[in-house]
Amino acid sequence: MNTLAYQENRAEVPGIELQIPSSVPNQDAIQVVYAPTASHANGLVLLLHACTHSALKFFSLSSTCPDCVGLSEELRIVRLLLEKGYTPVAISCINRKSGCWTNPDQDRIVKVLQHQLFANHTVYAMGASSGGSFAAQLLVRGVVDGALVMVMSLGNDVVGKLRRNPKPLYLAPMPRDKRTTTATINNYQDLKELNTEHKQMIILDTKSCDSLPVTRSYLQERVPGMTANIADRLISSLLQEKHLDASQMLIVDPTKSNWREIVSPDNSTRWLNKFVLKPGYSPLAKALHRAWAYHEYCSEVVVPALELFESNSQT
Length: 315
What we know:
The protein has ten helices and eight strands. It is an alpha/beta fold. The longest helix has 14 residues. InterPro entries: AB_hydrolase_fold (IPR029058).
């Protein structure tokens, strides 16, 4: 398997699931899903899920990961990492009930990085919400060399540690989430003095994760199996019911609206039956969530974050 494996359907990305034994007696094994690069990797990128999710959401269902779900924004993040020559390594937290990251997970991450497949690499972390907060914790602890924090602000302890020991950090809030954005801007104000004329250490990006129009090309790129005909019919239905405005921007929150009933009444609309619509398992729903852009993964900042990390590794 290599980075070409997903090109037959550019939205699909198969992964390989591992269960790595914990160092703590009687503790659950560590669930890991990864995809190797075609050649020597530039480094590893730890993918840290949000609450209620797991590593399974980053990769498509396949024989090497039969329980993988593969949500659209997570898949796009993995595709971008592979295209840039990085090995994506998604890890599930120990608390499978809440799906949120806690302190015991830090030692479990270290255990994963000691595995023969992942040892002796440059390591970055990318996470959203709880996963973003945890990425920042791994950064200040020295477990990773750079962190992308999506839709999450930093605690005072993390800010203090970064001021004493600066490390590359990319902050990416979603403007629609005003509370988190305001808190993240305040974090940046406390950290921006770490940047100099010759070296950028902290980036605040309040533009890249804004709302996006739901267009045919957007849906085809993000959603596995999406065709031009189905995308057009979906958009037409949402326009007719006034979920989209004339520029095809969502005007109704898809995380709370009845869009499923509109596009698939009584779950009987044959043209959409091939797509999973169940909350938490639907790549189509995830694509709409990203387009709405309130508290969600944001693949648009993956490459800029890598550029920040790489610029610091060269100095």
